[in-house]
Structures are given as C-alpha cells and as structure tokens.
# Entry
Amino acid sequence: MKIRSIIFFVTIFLAKISMAQNAVDIENYISTYKDLAIAEMQRSGVPSAIILAQGIHETEAGTSELVRKSNNHFGIKCKAGWAGSVVYHDDDERGECFRGYEKPEDSYKDHSDFLRNSPRYAFLFKIDPTDYSAWAYGLKKAGYATNNRYPQILIKLIEDYNLEQYTMIAMGKLKAEDEKLVAKEDDNIPSSSSTKASDIIKTNNDVSINLPPPPKYPEGQFVINNTNVIFAKAGTSLLSIAEQYNLSLGRLVDFNDLKIENVLEKDQLLFLQRKRKVSDNEFHIVRRGETLYDICQEEGIRYESVLEMNQLSNGLQPAVGEKIYLQSNAPSRPMLAK
# Structure
C-alpha cells in the first residue's frame, strides 16, 4: 500500500514539473518569435495570434524533433511545386516529406505566403483579424490540420497566453511597451505572468485558479462570435449609433438586451446583429465585478440562452470563478454570488 502511495505522489509531482516546463517552453517561444509574428501580420495579414498559436502547437513550443532538424515551425509538407530543402519525418504516415528552412524567419514567411497565395485559404482574409476563433475554425475547415480539435487547441493557446495582444500591436491598437504575457498558473507552477494576486481566487473545490484578464477591444466595427459589434463609451447616444449603422433604435436595444433607449450608462459592447444562441467558446470563467449580462456581451451570446444552459433565472448572479457553459447544458447550476 505504501509503495502505491509513493508511486501516486511521484506521478503527480512529475506531472506538475512537466506542466511547469511546458509553460516555460511556451513563454520562451512567445518571447523569441513574437516580433516575427507581428512583422508577418503587417506584411501578409495573417493575425499574429494565429501565427504564434500555430507555431507553439506545431513545434511543441519549439522542442519538437521536426523543428529542430528543419526549422519548420508550421508543419508544412513538401506539396507539389516545392523546390527547397526537404526532411523526412513520421507524421500521419511514416517518412513524410516536410519543407526545410535555413532559419526560422524563412519558415514564418513561407507559412504566411502559403496561406495568402492558396485559393482554399482566401476566405480567411475576409475575416476580421481580431476574430481569432473564426480564423482557427476557418483553418480547420480549409484542411490545414486533420485533428478535429485543432481550432480549440489554437483558441486555448491564444486565450491562456494572451496572444491576441500581438495582433493588436501589429494593428497599431496597442503599444508594444503595454504588452503583458499572461500564462497559465497552478499552485506550484512557475510563471512570468505579472497577474495581480487579487486575480487569483479559490473555486468551490478549493482549487486556486488564475482569472483571465478582461479583453481589450479595437476601435470601429469588428466581430465577436461571427456577429458584428462595436465598443462604445459611456454617455454615447444609442440613437446616434443606430443611425450611424442604419438600424432602428428598437432593434439596437433588442439586439443588446437593453432596457434604456437614451445614452449608455457605462462602456460596453454593442451588437449590430442579433447575437448567437451558442458561443465559439465552450465556457467562460466569471471575473470580479462581471455580471451575467457582461458575459453575454463579451461572448456574443443571447442572454436567455445562457440562462437556460446554466439553470439560472433572470437576476441570479454566478460567483467569481464559476464556470458558465456556453455551448451545452451545464451539469449543475453554478454557485451564486452572495
């Protein structure tokens, strides 16, 4: 019995070390290649967040055998017409042909050009570059990867490590000096994150978690959950917004579950189309000061849908750190705020 217990605790210990190392590898990868991803977005239009997420995933954060022997950061196979260096590597089949590069910069440039110049990826460049979810699902739809969970993998990397900030920097919406790397945290996992202690809470299972930071939004019209939206400041006239975007005031109010028809009482997202019944994201973790309405706006999902999926009724507020389901019915109602 003692031997089994020792084996169990050793396994847990080694797993935590592995997770910590993986987080460190990912942060090192981001630090090394973020500027290259920003430059490539400015050159080609491929969002920096997508570039970095693909690079992290395809190379195992720069540690894979393929990237070490080929500088191939995006798993691009030889294909017809490739006249450059090649390496052979076991992937879906044994000994498949992959493109080889002299340096990482060549791989990054070829990846951007591969997407930009291929007709099957052309539709991606009509998607708002800040809509990383649509880009991730679009890559899978176009056949970039065979893994059915490829979009979710990219989205999780983008959100866990705040990769969207590099898209915003490339677009001039955020200054490089304002960048903040947000890494996943666990009780004993080291991180370079500068997350405030007040953003780390304990769940109802007494597990410490790091709350995600609030998002930053670009100016003008953009897309959340495949729905057109803007970010408006407190004091803005709803009527002026409705007229600017050729909407009736009633429809604008209805799309955003508002009870007012004059001016906004706080800074908030305003949807210009009816929101979706489900979100691109599987769930949302409640932050401090965040209401259920705020969550619905951030995720681009209808208020009544969130109520139904999470066994909530109008007026109930989930507690900080609770998981709100956005695609399927929750197994139980979340704990409520006191």
About this structure: DSSP finds eleven helices and nine strands in the chain. Residues 306 and 331 are 14 Å apart (CA to CA). Confidence is low (pLDDT under 50) at residues 7-21, 182-211.
